[in-house]
């Protein structure tokens, strides 16, 4: 897990051996958290569920329409003056700055330190 400086929240990085297909298979079979509550009874049900759940491969017609739309977009110049707040303008260019990444271990260390300090008060 890494967390970028100045950002809230953390981003989970999957381990090298993470099997995305196993996770996808589990979701396709039956996952109530995704509001897919009907059991998969036939191969047609399975294929339909796979189309709905799978983000690894889009249906061809959707993929083609996205590619077509993206190819017609023009590049825009970056104009930081259009951002509403001065602080956002300053932070915007630092979003992908990789020299100040806060690791999961660092955030947990800081959290423990805060908790310890709170207990001492």
The total count of strands amounts to 2
Strand content: under 5%
Q: Tell me the distance between the termini.
A: 30 Å
* Helix content estimate: 40-55%
Task: Explain how this protein is built.
With 121 residues, the protein is mainly alpha-helical. It is built from 5 helices and 2 strands; from the N terminus they run βααααβα. Helix 1 crosses helix 2. The model has no long low-confidence stretch (mean pLDDT 77).
Q: How are the secondary structure elements laid out?
A:
Elements: E1 2-4, H1 20-29, H2 43-53, H3 60-72, H4 86-92, E2 101-103, H5 104-120
Antiparallel strand pairs: 1-2
What is the compact description of this entry?
With 121 residues, the chain is mainly alpha-helical. Helix content is 48%, strand content 5%.
Supply database-style keywords.
two-stranded antiparallel ribbon; mainly alpha
């Amino acid at each position: 897990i890494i967390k970028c400086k100045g950002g809230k929240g953390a981003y989970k990085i999957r381990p090298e051996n993470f099997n995305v297909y196993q996770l996808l298979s589990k979701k396709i079979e039956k996952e109530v958290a995704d509001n897919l509550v009907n059991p998969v009874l036939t191969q047609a049900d399975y294929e339909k569920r796979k189309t709905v759940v799978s983000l690894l491969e889009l249906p061809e017609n959707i993929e083609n329409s996205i590619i077509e739309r993206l190819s017609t977009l023009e590049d825009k110049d970056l104009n930081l003056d259009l951002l509403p707040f001065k602080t956002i303008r300053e932070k915007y260019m630092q979003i992908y700055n990789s020299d100040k990444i806060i690791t999961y271990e660092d955030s947990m260390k800081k959290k423990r330190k805060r908790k310890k300090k709170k207990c001492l008060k």
